Amino acid sequence: MQFDSFTFLLFFVVVVGCYRLIPGWSHKKNWLLFTSYVFYAGWNPWFLPLLISTSFADWFMAQKMAQAGSRRKRKLWLWSILSINLGVLGYFKYAYFLSDSAAQFASALGLSWQVDPFDIILPIGISFYTFHSLSYCLDVYRGKFAPVKNLRDYLLYVGFFPQLVAGPIVRWREMQEQIEQPRHMSLATTGMGLCLVTVGLFEKIVLADAAFAPVADAYFNQATEPGTQQAWLGALAFSGQIFCDFAGYTTCALGAALVMGFRLPINFLNPYCALGFSDFWRRWHISLSTWLRDYLYIGLGGNRGGPWLTSRNLMLTMLIGGLWHGAAWTFVIWGGLHGALLILERVAKHVFGTVSPGFVLRCVLRLLTLGTIVITWVWFRSQSLAGAWQSTLAMLDVSQLLHNPVPLTGAQWIALGCIGALITGQWLMRDRTMVDVIAKTPAPVTGITMGLLIALIVLSPGESHAFIYFQF
Amino acid sequence: MLLSTSSFERKPNRFWLVSMTLSLLVALALCLTAEYYWREQGYTPRILDSAMLWSLERSKATTGNSLVFVGASRTQFGIHPPTVKKLLPHYQPIMLAVNGMYPLSTLRNLAEDPQFNGTVLLDVDARGMIKDFWWMQQPYVDYYEHQFTPNWYIHRLFLNVWQKHTVISRDAMSITETIARTLDTGRMPWKPNYELKSSRAGHLIFTEESAKRLAKNFGDQLEQFLEDHPPPPADQWLQELNLLAQWIETIENRGGKVILYEPPVSGRQKSLAESFLPKEQYWDQLISTYHLTAINYQEEPTLQAFEQPDESHVKGDSRDEYTAALIQLMIDKGLVEP
What we know:
By secondary structure, chain A is mainly α. Chain A is 72% helix and 0% strand.
């Protein structure tokens, strides 16, 4: 089910209404679990058994792992959990990519091996709920907490509908108390939750789908060789689209959960005002970057083995992070570029020291960070390596921008205006969340602003686009 | 880092009541103003066709009593489903024709659906069966097969109601489209010359002037196209349609039925089709070679009696009679049971 659909509107009213009326915390949780599965089945009911069975298997095996007497047995259970989860993820998401890549490699060696395209449908949200479950099992293995006894509570932790299909990736520690102790709804949580849902829908429907998508799609779907101006416009529009699409989803998720009294982790903190690339990853898809840091980067040794090993670990983490996003070499290169940028930043900090830059230098560094991130998005969005390479070259050929300016279309002006406003807004908000801003705004201003956003949502019709991150 | 709630939970209830009330009032006022503005400009609410609406209809075509209308604009704006329902109460009429697109990919989709065993009225002329045009409706099929979900099924039901009653639900009236159009040309949105129901069937709105203009445009376009892209020789055309015959056979082996139908055209539409794809060399050969069931307007005086103001489509107010005549023909030929 998608947040920006009439179906969700109806669903949410029914869910929240009954949630309020149902007596007893245990019954409320049963209701939430049931409706979460209805939410998931709204996409494809045939994959619901997969979600339930993998969640059950993880819960069961985590129990067994905790009860195992020896370290060897615990390790065996852990490998079973990893094999099942990564096996399922690998089959649905990477089987064709791996076979096709192997075939291309064989062809380069002069061997003949053809792979027919697989007809595998990717279960929605599989990357997210797999990472949910894995974080729980890895933490049980590391002895951070005892496994949860109650199966229903565990299923609800994995399946809770606001964060089920596109995150944020929540840790058991963040949800344990919220699931075990009754939640309370109040006018404040309902009001703020609805404000967040409104802001999220505005980001998705008005900005991502109506303002940015037409310009980004027109650029990235064209067959002709790109010019510098068009390449920058397309990349900037996609930078706006990917942020508003994904942040829009998580803002809706945070809001929907808050209406029912649950607090999810924030996933974005104004990433386009980042000062450097490590700062960017502290602000972009925070729940994934902390997951990769805690379970992959630190697992590989983190920064404990000197500069070379640290660089290797950073690069591996970012390459796998890139591959997590999609089964294509463009995503791997996107991850690799970010890995390289993070390594470069570490080197720069080592060479120049951690001096605190002045205002002007901070602005220059922020712009440099933003410009580089916009260029890397080209690799995320392009449908082929050749297309991404051509776009990158076009973006770097700034002289063409000065000599061959092309008049902008109305849609391009809108996209440019919106990305400008978005970046300015993020620079002004910097470390404050949307909740902080709304909480400090007087009631009439909040009311009028939310009214304006709702009107803009209603006045932006068009058939909905799936959230980009659903495919991951 | 969990969402911090400490910053807003201390706010008094009055804050939230004022905010929520104001936001609803502001949103309502702005939307009503926009709705009023567009209605003042002469725009009226209308159902918008899309792959999602097509999929909603397609999802109903699963049972033996489905009477599926597959084709292009001549069927979408010619067939009147309430008349079908009245004459054939045991059948469920389903409109899968798509304006401007030849339909063979839809027929293949029905053939590949193991559930489908209904009756198909396939509106297609000889030109629409040239291989280059087979896959025009494939994006609709792909959407149905890969993106249409229970979520979108329910969403589209609500969207139909929303579009039926508001002008602001039209894409062309969206705030971004309006601003972009103002910056580009300053023109007002196009007023379509057709109306659709949520069943996807509709009718064309002709004035004497628009009908003449359309007839000329259609004729010129067809003539130019046929000169630029001459049809393949009849033998090759027929050979390639072996696949079509297989799809039909697949549906009929499941207990379904496929009726090929060439609807009435007149003027240059008729003469151009006849000169480039003569009936006896193309259509008649297809029917006899593959033993297909067919209705061709040239063999049916009752169908020829209907006027086509633009030489291609029946008038909106003739749809009822035209549909009744076609259904009666199907009954008389024993193709459907009343």
